[in-house]
Amino acid sequence: MNENKNDNENIFGDVIYAYTREDAINDNTLLEVNDTAREAGIKFPVAITKNLYHKYINPKTMPTGQDEKGRLWDLLSMFRFNVKNSEGSKLYYKVKFSGKLIDVIASVEPKSMTDPNPAITICLPEDN
């Protein structure tokens, strides 16, 4: 082994390009829901995928008596309830929207390559 080599150096060389969480938020692939997440008792930044948002949080036809805020609250409060019994960086859980049980995945990863603080991303299985 080469003793002069830095232990933190990537064995594959320098990263040429990385699509970051910030990039995904800037191009609306991920939607930040931090205010509602804080209200639900989640202290880390939370983003959901655009697909999840349009399919279940704010669909084209909203059932009577439901709204975007309530559906987002359901998604986030179920995350908070289920995270207490989870291990690892991914949490698989279910949320009921209009009587239909939906599978979702929450991932906890560093916020960015330069910010190691946790950030949560919630998506549908097909978004993963």
Number of helices: 4
| Portion of residues within helices | 25-40%
Elements, N to C (H/E): HEHEHHEEE
Q: Strand portion, in percent?
A: 25-35%
In order across it, which strands form the biggest sheet?
Answer: 1-2-5-4-3
Q: Please indicate the count of domains.
A: 1
Number of E-state strands: 5
- The structural class is alpha+beta
Q: For the report, how would you describe the main beta sheet?
A: 5 strands, mixed
Can you give a write-up of this model?
With 128 residues, the chain is of the alpha+beta class. The chain has one domain (28-127). It contains 4 helices and 5 strands, in the order H-E-H-E-H-H-E-E-E. It has helices at residues 21-26, 34-39, 50-57, 68-83, and strands at 30-32, 46-49, 90-97, 100-110, 118-123. It has a 5-stranded mixed beta sheet with strand order 1-2-5-4-3. The protein starts with 20 loop residues before the first helix and ends in a 5-residue tail after the last strand.
